[in-house]
Amino acid sequence: MALDLLNIGMSGLRTSQKQLNVTSHNISNVNTPGYSRQSAEQKADDAHWIGGSQYGTGAYIDNVRRAYDQFAARELTQSTTQLHQANESHAQLAVMDEFISNNASKTISSMNDYYDSVKSLADHPNDLGSRKAVLENAALVSQTVNSTYDTLSSMQRDVNDQLVATVDRVNSLGQELATLNKRIQENPAGEKNDLFDQQQSLVNELAQYTKVTVLKGKDNLANTVIIGDGQTFVSGTESSRLTVIPGEPDPLQTQIAVDDGHTTKPIDSDSMGGILGAMVGFRRDVVERSIDEVGRMAIGFAGQVNTIQRQGLDLNGEQGQNLYADINDPTAMAQRVLKPVGSTADLAVGIEDVSQLQLGDYKLKATDNGGSYRYQVFNSQGEEVFSQNIDVADPQVIRVDGMKIDVTQPPVDDEIITLRPVRLGGAHMAMSATEPTDIAAQRIVTPDAENMGNGQLGALSTAQASGQYEVVLNDNGKRLSVYDAEGKKIDLVEVDANGNPTTTKNIKYPIHDNVIRFADTSLIPDPNGFATLTLTGQAQGEDRFTVNLNAEKAEGDNSNLLEMQHLQTQKTMNNGRSSVIDLFQTLTTEVGIQKMNAEKFGQISQLDFDAANERVASVSGVNLDEEAANLMKFQQAYMASSRIMSVARETFDTLLRAV
Questions:
Q1: Do residues 248 and 369 both lie within one domain?
Q2: Main-chain phi, psi angles of 312, to 5 degrees
Q3: Domain count, the chain
Q4: Most CB within 10 Å of its CB: which of 61, 309, 385, 627?
């Protein structure tokens, strides 16, 4: 009897001691991040059957349970991803907003200074000092645009560098999780709770960088960790490795890929979430879009200024030449095309109508149908904006969204060609004119105000020709005619770039290169004959152009400068909805709105995170008041069990003395 009593007391003593240990462990880790409260689960020992009755034999600790709710933990993991994605987006956008705001004011100010100098020159068209001021302000616009482009490109490279550093940390977390899973497998059941806490802390840290889904194994022995929308990152004790690879076809559009030791597979960046998703989204939707907008603005400004320049006479009485580098320089046209490695395709992208230019990349596909090619062009939203069959014998020319795509060698079937009409516009902007006398103040070509097309007429030579002429397209826009000041139709001959005649009369429009040069047949082959004119762009039926050819410059004529001034406010961009200056102002507004939305999203995400964290804390957190009460309770139980053992000893001694 005393022996049974002693065993019962010993079991109670051991049970209370373990409960005191667990409680003390809780109290010690009250401030440990990620710690989950533990509790010792006490059960009664099996009873003994004696004399027809059952008698208890004490108690034991069956398990040390970790206070954990997988649904609350999953909610915290998801809210962690959302919060850090929002915070990263807001931080990046705050930097961009400050940069764009500062540079917008500089760029817009430089453009307005240019237009102000043009207005001053219009008052004194022959003043060399005023002409020099125009050149200097024009150069300042170019320098400001170049600087903006360079800084944005630097931001793009910085994001790529940040991606590499972040991916390195993600890989470290994967290795730590795999190592921890191995330790969990090797440890006895009673020692796993703290390891499970470490595991959850690593998962929550990983969730800062990307979306995480955790699949529990049997008895939580090893977890499978999935990132993004289904990419296995950790499987048991093995971890894959993320890497950053050059983009295809643009190396600067780096991609995140997973390397499982055998293959490297790119991951859909839109599915990543967290800091990684925020970085990729910021680079694509903000930085690259801003670079495109700066490029569109540069092309629009330079292209329109150059067009007006070519429609006037300079101080030397010669046709005005480009003020800025030609937006359709062969090198620039070729650099607007990105081809896959090894592609034999040969394409060039020219700009015909700056008002129709859109942002983003285009994708071009060609299908060989035997006697023709079927071309398809998709915009940055994946929408098909062009689909047409072109006979092999015809010029392979595609016109879409202000672009003129010349195809010398079509891509092979299923090959994707990337077109970027405006991405490098900010980098290519440069001065072409160098002398104050180069500015064309006197207008010689005037498009009719009711013209429906965007065709532009420029004079290539005005040698020994004078008078006023009118160039008219017929009703379907396929042929053109030239009339003199008395309305008499002039016989024409088409000439090549060197002024040599190639075709007589009936000038067709458009032709392959969309450039038509023609001269008065009565003056051919006189090399100093009628001015050779060039028609570019996409004119339409019934469009008219007045050409005022004078061998000598009219002193004080500022008609071309007045036309130049109109560009400051004319809605010549974005399909007639914006001026060039409006584009930058709109970009500033868009970035500011994105920053504000990111800030609001961050505030909402913070509330969700706090609520999830509070829910986890309510389940797993340590309550010092509760633990203090448990400490007193288990201490009393320990002392009571000690007393049971004392009673057992006294009883045993009494029995021995009675013998």
A1: no
A2: -130, 180
A3: 4
A4: 309
- What's the pLDDT score for residue 92? 95
Tokens representing residue 641 in the block: 């069990």
CB 538 within 8 A of CB 455: yes
Paired strand residues for 67 = none
How far is residue 305 from each of residues 311, 468, 580, measured CA to CA in Å? 10, 24, 11
Q: Structure tokens of 237?
A: 């004790």
Domain that holds residue 392: 337-422
Tokens in use for 235?
Answer: 């499987």
Examine the domain organization and report whether 185 and 272 are in the same domain: yes
Phi-psi region of 477 (alpha: psi -120 to 50; beta: other; left: phi over 0): left
DSSP string for 95-146: HHHHHHHHHHHHHHHHHHHHHHHHHHHHHSTT-HHHHHHHHHHHHHHHHHHH
Say whether both 197 and 120 belong to one domain. Answer: yes
Query: CA–CA separation, 130 vs 376, rounded Å?
Result: 50
Name which residue leads in pLDDT, 444 or 401. 401
Contacts of residue 262, Cβ cutoff 8 Å, sequence gap at least 6: none
**164 assigned to some structural domain:** yes
pLDDT > 90? residue 506? no
- The pLDDT of residue 460 is 53
In angstroms, the Cα distances linking 491 to 455, 504, 507 are: 22, 8, 10
Q: For residue 196, count CB atoms less than 10 angstroms from its CB and return exposed for 0-12, middle for 13-18, buried for 19 or more.
A: middle
Tokens of 137: 């302000």
Tokens of 177: 């999780």
Which secondary-structure segment (H or E) carries 617? helix 580-620
Tokens at 484, concatenated: 């003199």
User: How many other CB atoms are there within 10 angstroms of residue 359's CB atom?
Assistant: 21
Q: How far is CA 601 from its chain centroid?
A: 19
637 and 599: one domain? no
Nearest to 549 by CA among 471, 455, 450: 471
Q: What is the mean pLDDT of residues 121-134?
A: 92
- Whether 432 is in a domain gets the answer no
pLDDT over 70 percentage in the chain? 86
- Give 479 or 201, the one with higher predicted confidence: 201
Tell me: the pLDDT tens digits for 14-54? 888 888 888 888 898 888 888 888 888 888 888 777 777 77
Q: What is the CA radius of gyration of the chain?
A: 40
Are 641 and 12 a contacting pair, CB within 8 Å? yes
Q: Do 626 and 606 share a structural domain?
A: no
* Mean pLDDT computed over 133-151: 95
Sequence-separated (6 or more) residues with CB below 8 Å from residue 159: 92, 279, 282, 283, 287
